[in-house]
Amino acid sequence: MRVCGAGTMGGGIAQLLSSRGIWVRLKDINYGAIALGISSAAKIYKQEVKKRKMKPAVARKAWVGSAARWITAVSAMRTL
Description:
Blueprint: E1 2-4, H1 8-19, E2 25-28, H2 31-50, H3 56-69, E3 71-74
Parallel strand pairs: 1-2, 2-3
Helix pairs in contact: 1-2, 2-3
């Protein structure tokens, strides 16, 4: 699955998909947005643990697995 626009919302979408075992490709025009997307996904995992919706070991396993599956790309997306 490709997520174009890897900011905060893109990171949330990518986290949801990756937590379900779906390969995710974050795509944006700059590395800063990709970094924001990845940190947003990490924040969601931390919140799930804090709310006790996910155990720390499960979150750690999901994060390591999903981060390894993610492919990031910077491209020259054009605004129409």
